[in-house]
Specification:
The complex is a heterodimer of chains A (about 325) and B (about 260). With about 325 residues, chain A is mostly helical. Chain A has 12 helices and 2 strands. Classes of the chains: A mainly alpha (about 325), B mainly alpha (about 260).
């Protein structure tokens, strides 16, 4: 239904050593790879997986925040939250469109999400339990997403890189908006500050998990780095995030829930950085494998929206078809 | 916005404040209902379009409440009016609080309301109150889009498949009892219409009927028979679903009163 044409060309490429070397030379010269360019099947597959996963994260990521739209405490906060969740839908749309340029349809990607074959960011499998979570998600989750995504603006695949420029601008706005919400709570009453601290306690470790497995355990990094799909390792990005965020928590007067967090002058080539405690990788893998607190609810909500919307999509197609036939009849008459 | 309004005498001013809050309540409550769809729409495009309309409605509610609060001059801002009242003090039209139902129901409810409001704002462009004319200036463009978007869906669904046609017909029948209230003009609404400060709701009925019969004909749907309709929203007598809507809307303000957010 949605798949964009790829000029109908055969996507198979004879991956001779010469072809692969020439492709790598283009990447090394920082040329952008565009939709109709020949590319190795594995490059295409990696991008489809990554962009699809990213798009799904935006769509599933609408749910935890949409959970608070009707309960937002002021009209200003309500409109900001609604606009933010709408932006996420917009990001999903650009990203699905970017993935479609690689020859996969949005419908096929959606079906993979609903069947559990395609993954999305595990962070959205945690529940939003208080209003402060709207601040913490903006501050920490969007903050972590920006660390991951800014380098993607220079990704070797043109449509993805270009989509990410706008996505990152909006994410950066969301991050500041979330932090501003946290400031209001932390400048508020003791009850509001406690709400903010509780939220930080719940979102801190899942946010660190957003950068993925440790470099020693990551399956996809090496080849993705050579193809300039990935520019920094998971651990490098995680460290940058911790170093930036601890000071922001200090400014709010909130405590990071990590007793092992300590400044280490020798880190980051002598510029200093924070040592932090061990991530609970058992929890990480449990959530990735579908057993987090909200995995089943999130997919059930997406399935329900998709299945209950089927008659609407069918009606739109049927109506378009009738209009087409009518126009054809008018032309022949 | 300009607080003073020398053209409005005191009894009329009380009516104007009430009428502005009524309109604000319509937009707040319908915006709330529409925002319930967020993340659950039948397609991604509608997950963008419905929040868009909801945002416009909330923006209009904010402008209306803020102006009402400034005329009232008792220190109530938009949030004090939006959040801190009892159920019977909300005076929205009943159609705005009706549960979403399916997508056909939501689109038709929006079309009924937006078609009314678009014509209302068109008249309000020439209001003798410059603040109202300014609010109308923005709202008329937004409601124009709301009418176009929802009319397209009502036509597509009415003339789509057998299932969508049946669901659309059900929506017409379920919403019909709530149409009449759109045009009701009680003393408060009439007082606001005297000096052309706000349009009188009854003055919209003929135009609404013309536009709606054109759209519904294209959708192969009947006009709603609304003469035996429900009423009471303007007096604060609501349907059963309103209490639940307010329980969500007011949750934080009730649980943590008098705080800054």
């Amino acid at each position: 239904m949605y798949s964009q044409g790829l000029n109908g060309q055969n996507l198979d490429v004879n991956e001779t050593p010469e072809f692969l070397a020439a492709f790598q030379a283009r990447i090394d010269a920082d040329e952008k790879i565009e939709p109709n360019d020949p590319m190795p099947a594995a490059y295409r597959k990696t991008l489809i997986r990554q962009i699809g996963q990213h798009a799904h994260s935006e769509i599933v990521g609408m749910l935890p925040e949409a959970n608070w739209i009707t309960r937002a405490p002021t009209l200003r906060r309500k409109t900001a939250l609604l606009a933010k969740v709408q932006d996420e839908g917009g990001h999903g749309l650009y990203l699905y469109s970017a993935a479609e340029t690689l020859g996969v349809s949005r419908e096929a990607m959606t079906e993979e999400l609903l069947s559990g074959k395609a993954k999305y960011s595990s962070i959205f499998n945690y529940p939003t339990l208080s209003w402060a979570d709207m601040g913490a998600i903006g501050w920490l989750v969007d903050g972590a997403a920006i660390m991951n995504q800014v380098p993607l603006c220079r990704c070797s695949y043109g449509p993805y890189a270009r989509a990410m420029i706008r996505v990152c601008k909006e994410e950066s706005f969301h991050q500041r908006q979330g932090y501003e919400l946290m400031i209001s709570l932390c400048n508020g009453t003791a009850a509001q500050k406690a709400m903010a601290q509780d939220s930080l306690n719940r979102w801190w470790w899942p946010s660190l998990m957003m950068f993925g497995p440790s470099d020693s355990d990551s399956q996809h990094s090496d080849q993705s780095t050579a193809w300039k799909i990935k520019r920094f390792t998971n651990d490098e990005l995680r460290q940058k995030f911790v170093d930036a965020t601890v000071k922001q928590a200090d400014h709010l007067g909130l405590s990071i829930p990590d007793p092992d967090l300590v400044w280490n002058e020798t880190k980051n080539d002598g510029q200093g950085g924070y040592d932090f405690g061990d991530i609970d990788w058992d929890e990480f893998w449990k959530v990735v494998k579908g057993h987090g607190p909200m995995n089943k609810d999130r997919i059930a909500a997406r399935k329900q929206a998709w299945e209950e919307g089927a008659w609407v999509r069918e009606a739109a197609l049927a109506y378009a078809e009738k209009q087409k036939q009518q126009t054809a009849q008018q032309v022949t008459a | 916005m300009d607080v003073a309004n020398a053209n409005v005498d005191i009894p009329n001013q009380a009516s104007l404040i009430s009428q502005l809050i009524r309109l604000g309540d319509d937009h707040l409550v319908l915006g709330h209902r529409l925002s319930e769809w967020c993340g659950h729409a039948p397609m991604l495009e509608e997950d963008l379009a419905m929040p868009n309309i909801a945002l416009d409605l909330l923006g209009q509610a904010r402008a209306l409440y803020t102006y009402a609060g400034s005329l009232e001059n008792k220190g109530r801002d938009e949030d004090a009016i939006a959040y801190n009242r009892l159920e019977h003090e909300y005076t929205n039209l009943l159609i705005c609080e009706r549960p979403n139902g399916d997508f056909a129901h939501t689109m038709l409810r929006q079309l009924f309301f937006s078609c009314f409001m678009h014509q209302y704002w068109q008249q309000a462009l020439s209001s003798t109150d410059e603040n109202i004319a300014a609010i109308a200036g923005k709202a008329v463009k937004e409601s124009d889009y709301h009418v176009r978007h929802t009319a397209q869906w009502v036509i597509r669904l009415g003339d789509g498949t057998d299932e969508s046609a049946q669901r659309s017909l059900d929506a017409v029948q379920q919403l019909a009892p709530y149409v009449n209230e759109l045009f009701e003009t009680d003393d408060i609404a009439a007082a606001c219409a005297v000096n052309k400060v706000l349009p009188g709701p009854s003055s919209i009925e003929a135009g609404w009927n013309v536009q709606m019969s054109d759209i519904l004909e294209q959708a192969k749907l009947p006009m709603p028979e609304y003469q035996m309709g429900q009423s009471g929203g303007r007096q604060g007598r609501h349907t059963e679903s309103m209490g639940y809507l307010l329980a969500e809307l007011q949750f934080l303000q009730r649980s943590y009163p008098n705080m800054q957010w």
